Amino acid sequence: MLNPAYLRLSNVLPTLVEMPADELAKLNYVFQEITLNTGEFLVRAGEIPARIAFVVSGLLRLYYVNSAGSEFTKSFCPENHFVTAYSALILKQPAQFFIEALEDSLLLVADYSQYAQLCTENSCWQTINYKLVEALFIKKEKREAELLLDDATTRYQKFLTEYPYLETRVKQYHIASYLGISPVSLSRIRKNLQLN
Fold first, then answer.
1. Do 72 and 92 belong together in one domain?
2. Are residues 165 and 136 in the same domain?
3. What is the mean pLDDT of each run of 10 residues along the chain (196 residues)?
4. pTM of the full predicted structure?
5. Which of 82, 65, 196 shows the shortest CA–CA distance to 136?
6. What is the CATH number of the domain that holds 125?
7. Which residue range forms the structural domain that includes residue 42?
Protein backbone atom coordinates (compact mmCIF):
# COMPACT_ATOMS: atom_id res chain seq x y z
CA MET A 1 0.00 0.00 0.00
CA LEU A 2 1.46 3.37 -1.04
CA ASN A 3 1.55 6.15 1.54
CA PRO A 4 -0.17 9.45 0.58
CA ALA A 5 2.97 11.05 -0.90
CA TYR A 6 3.67 8.11 -3.20
CA LEU A 7 -0.04 7.86 -3.99
CA ARG A 8 0.02 11.47 -5.22
CA LEU A 9 2.92 10.72 -7.59
CA SER A 10 1.36 7.42 -8.69
CA ASN A 11 -1.79 9.36 -9.66
CA VAL A 12 0.14 11.94 -11.69
CA LEU A 13 2.36 9.57 -13.69
CA PRO A 14 -0.50 7.70 -15.44
CA THR A 15 -1.72 11.05 -16.81
CA LEU A 16 1.55 11.10 -18.81
CA VAL A 17 1.65 7.46 -19.93
CA GLU A 18 0.06 4.09 -19.20
CA MET A 19 1.94 2.66 -16.23
CA PRO A 20 2.06 -1.05 -15.35
CA ALA A 21 1.39 -1.70 -11.66
CA ASP A 22 4.82 -3.28 -11.15
CA GLU A 23 6.49 -0.10 -12.47
CA LEU A 24 4.43 2.11 -10.13
CA ALA A 25 5.55 -0.14 -7.26
CA LYS A 26 9.16 0.93 -7.95
CA LEU A 27 8.36 4.44 -6.71
CA ASN A 28 8.88 3.22 -3.13
CA TYR A 29 12.46 2.21 -3.94
CA VAL A 30 13.60 5.06 -6.17
CA PHE A 31 11.92 8.09 -4.57
CA GLN A 32 12.51 9.09 -0.95
CA GLU A 33 10.43 11.54 1.08
CA ILE A 34 12.13 14.71 2.25
CA THR A 35 10.76 17.87 3.79
CA LEU A 36 12.02 21.39 3.20
CA ASN A 37 11.10 24.11 5.65
CA THR A 38 10.33 27.57 4.34
CA GLY A 39 13.61 29.17 3.24
CA GLU A 40 15.50 25.88 2.82
CA PHE A 41 17.02 24.92 -0.51
CA LEU A 42 16.71 21.90 -2.75
CA VAL A 43 19.57 23.26 -4.87
CA ARG A 44 21.91 26.22 -4.40
CA ALA A 45 23.68 28.02 -7.22
CA GLY A 46 27.19 26.59 -7.52
CA GLU A 47 26.19 23.09 -6.44
CA ILE A 48 26.21 20.21 -8.91
CA PRO A 49 22.71 18.73 -8.63
CA ALA A 50 22.26 14.96 -8.54
CA ARG A 51 18.53 14.62 -7.78
CA ILE A 52 15.16 15.09 -9.40
CA ALA A 53 12.20 15.97 -7.17
CA PHE A 54 8.42 15.81 -7.30
CA VAL A 55 6.49 18.37 -5.22
CA VAL A 56 3.85 16.57 -3.16
CA SER A 57 2.86 19.66 -1.21
CA GLY A 58 4.23 23.15 -0.78
CA LEU A 59 5.79 25.58 -3.21
CA LEU A 60 9.31 26.12 -4.58
CA ARG A 61 10.84 29.11 -6.35
CA LEU A 62 13.64 28.91 -8.92
CA TYR A 63 15.68 32.10 -9.09
CA TYR A 64 18.98 33.62 -10.19
CA VAL A 65 21.08 36.11 -8.23
CA ASN A 66 23.32 38.47 -10.22
CA SER A 67 26.67 39.91 -9.12
CA ALA A 68 24.92 42.94 -7.60
CA GLY A 69 22.77 40.66 -5.43
CA SER A 70 19.52 41.26 -7.34
CA GLU A 71 17.15 38.29 -7.62
CA PHE A 72 15.40 37.23 -10.83
CA THR A 73 12.67 34.61 -10.47
CA LYS A 74 12.85 31.98 -13.20
CA SER A 75 9.68 30.09 -12.24
CA PHE A 76 7.55 28.70 -9.45
CA CYS A 77 7.00 25.01 -8.81
CA PRO A 78 3.76 24.14 -6.99
CA GLU A 79 2.28 20.74 -6.14
CA ASN A 80 2.26 17.90 -8.69
CA HIS A 81 5.27 19.19 -10.63
CA PHE A 82 8.79 17.83 -11.07
CA VAL A 83 11.73 20.12 -10.37
CA THR A 84 15.51 20.13 -10.72
CA ALA A 85 18.26 22.29 -12.19
CA TYR A 86 17.91 20.24 -15.36
CA SER A 87 20.76 21.34 -17.62
CA ALA A 88 23.21 21.34 -14.69
CA LEU A 89 21.99 17.86 -13.75
CA ILE A 90 22.45 16.48 -17.27
CA LEU A 91 25.81 18.20 -17.86
CA LYS A 92 27.05 17.49 -14.30
CA GLN A 93 27.89 21.17 -13.92
CA PRO A 94 27.22 23.67 -11.11
CA ALA A 95 23.66 25.01 -11.08
CA GLN A 96 23.27 28.67 -12.00
CA PHE A 97 20.14 29.21 -9.92
CA PHE A 98 18.64 28.44 -6.53
CA ILE A 99 15.61 26.25 -5.81
CA GLU A 100 14.12 27.43 -2.52
CA ALA A 101 11.02 26.42 -0.56
CA LEU A 102 8.60 29.34 -0.24
CA GLU A 103 6.42 27.20 2.02
CA ASP A 104 7.04 24.11 4.13
CA SER A 105 7.20 21.50 1.38
CA LEU A 106 7.05 17.71 1.10
CA LEU A 107 9.03 16.28 -1.82
CA LEU A 108 9.70 12.88 -3.28
CA VAL A 109 13.33 12.91 -4.37
CA ALA A 110 15.20 10.44 -6.58
CA ASP A 111 18.90 10.16 -7.22
CA TYR A 112 19.16 10.93 -10.92
CA SER A 113 21.36 7.92 -11.68
CA GLN A 114 18.67 5.63 -10.20
CA TYR A 115 15.96 7.45 -12.14
CA ALA A 116 18.00 7.15 -15.35
CA GLN A 117 18.38 3.43 -14.66
CA LEU A 118 14.59 3.15 -14.45
CA CYS A 119 14.36 4.80 -17.86
CA THR A 120 16.55 2.07 -19.39
CA GLU A 121 14.42 -0.73 -17.91
CA ASN A 122 10.95 0.12 -19.19
CA SER A 123 9.71 2.29 -22.05
CA CYS A 124 6.99 3.86 -19.87
CA TRP A 125 9.73 5.69 -17.91
CA GLN A 126 11.39 6.79 -21.15
CA THR A 127 8.03 8.25 -22.23
CA ILE A 128 7.65 10.05 -18.89
CA ASN A 129 11.14 11.50 -19.22
CA TYR A 130 10.42 12.58 -22.79
CA LYS A 131 7.18 14.28 -21.76
CA LEU A 132 8.84 16.06 -18.83
CA VAL A 133 11.62 17.39 -21.06
CA GLU A 134 9.07 18.38 -23.72
CA ALA A 135 6.99 20.29 -21.15
CA LEU A 136 10.15 22.01 -19.84
CA PHE A 137 11.11 23.12 -23.35
CA ILE A 138 7.62 24.45 -24.11
CA LYS A 139 7.56 26.35 -20.82
CA LYS A 140 11.00 27.84 -21.49
CA GLU A 141 10.03 28.93 -25.01
CA LYS A 142 6.77 30.52 -23.81
CA ARG A 143 8.61 32.34 -21.02
CA GLU A 144 11.21 33.75 -23.42
CA ALA A 145 8.49 34.94 -25.80
CA GLU A 146 6.59 36.65 -22.96
CA LEU A 147 9.69 38.51 -21.77
CA LEU A 148 10.60 39.60 -25.28
CA LEU A 149 7.19 40.34 -26.79
CA ASP A 150 4.62 41.10 -24.08
CA ASP A 151 4.15 44.25 -22.06
CA ALA A 152 4.21 43.97 -18.26
CA THR A 153 0.40 43.94 -17.90
CA THR A 154 0.09 41.05 -20.35
CA ARG A 155 2.88 39.17 -18.58
CA TYR A 156 1.04 39.61 -15.27
CA GLN A 157 -2.23 38.36 -16.76
CA LYS A 158 -0.43 35.31 -18.16
CA PHE A 159 1.14 34.69 -14.74
CA LEU A 160 -2.36 34.61 -13.21
CA THR A 161 -3.44 32.11 -15.88
CA GLU A 162 -0.36 29.89 -15.60
CA TYR A 163 -0.20 29.93 -11.81
CA PRO A 164 -3.81 30.19 -10.55
CA TYR A 165 -4.06 30.54 -6.76
CA LEU A 166 -0.38 31.46 -6.41
CA GLU A 167 -0.90 35.20 -6.10
CA THR A 168 -2.03 34.79 -2.49
CA ARG A 169 0.81 32.34 -1.69
CA VAL A 170 3.72 34.32 -3.16
CA LYS A 171 5.18 37.63 -2.00
CA GLN A 172 4.53 40.50 -4.39
CA TYR A 173 8.25 41.19 -4.89
CA HIS A 174 8.71 37.56 -6.02
CA ILE A 175 5.95 38.02 -8.59
CA ALA A 176 7.49 41.32 -9.71
CA SER A 177 10.91 39.69 -10.14
CA TYR A 178 9.25 36.90 -12.18
CA LEU A 179 7.65 39.53 -14.43
CA GLY A 180 10.88 41.50 -14.77
CA ILE A 181 9.44 44.66 -13.19
CA SER A 182 9.64 46.52 -9.88
CA PRO A 183 7.15 45.89 -7.06
CA VAL A 184 5.92 49.49 -7.56
CA SER A 185 5.14 48.76 -11.22
CA LEU A 186 3.32 45.57 -10.24
CA SER A 187 1.23 47.49 -7.70
CA ARG A 188 0.31 50.00 -10.41
CA ILE A 189 -0.68 47.24 -12.85
CA ARG A 190 -2.84 45.51 -10.26
CA LYS A 191 -4.55 48.80 -9.40
CA ASN A 192 -5.25 49.54 -13.09
CA LEU A 193 -6.71 46.09 -13.66
CA GLN A 194 -9.01 46.46 -10.65
CA LEU A 195 -10.28 49.80 -12.01
CA ASN A 196 -11.14 48.29 -15.43
1. yes
2. no
3. 80 88 87 96 97 96 94 94 94 97 97 90 89 90 93 95 90 94 94 84
4. 0.92
5. 82
6. 2.60.120.10
7. 4-141
